[in-house]
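ingest -> validate -> predict -> emit
validate: passed (alphabet ok, no gaps, 233 aa)
predict: started
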Amino acid sequence: RECVSILRRSVGVPAPVAAIDVVVIPTLKVPSVAEVEVVVAAATAAPKKKRDLWCYFALQRDFFISVSIQMAPKYWIGVVSQPHVEFGVSGGFCQMHHGKVAALYRMKVGDGLIYYSPKTDMDPKKGKPLQSFTAIGSIIGEKPYQFAMNENSTPFRLSVAYEPNVKAVSIRPLLDKLDFVRKIKNPAKWGMLFRAGHFEIGKNDFDLISAAMGAGGPVENVSTENNTFTIKQ
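emit:
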């Protein structure tokens, strides 16, 4: 059957959905707006198996509708000592929890990552207090990979496009402005938050830290091995 027309429509919706793209292919008739809206509502209500891009299909007797849902990026804090941050930035990767993979699988292409460094060295005897945000970037790796540093160490890594020419920023002037600090019962014990090593923050906090560091925001038109993604600010 010949495709009569293709209707494309993008609508802005609240997080965690960034955008919806609807394609309608009539076979016997053009569906009404109400019929399309029913399918879109079902798609947005359905559980998402894949957070970055998810597709929903509705095959009716008179028409076919596909709904592509682009999920909004998430934003993360990674806790890493300053030398390890510099090593990761120079190599274009992130590494968490002494090379373990679990935290890396939580992040998807387009997510924002900010490194927080509590000390200047991982060794408590050598490191001096730093308590600063030290790097910022966007995830570009589709999945973690293992890197053989030596025969005894094969940590998991994830590719990151880091913002160049940013400055390290102390967390202290920002404490009363950060939502993830103000939400805890005792904000005076904010340091406990970073013991998790890796946790999610809101976009407002990410933007606040990003601006303080002099970053330009999430990377746009990021090329990966298989796809090109546009991350809208």
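Confidence is low (pLDDT under 50) at residues 1-12, 218-233.
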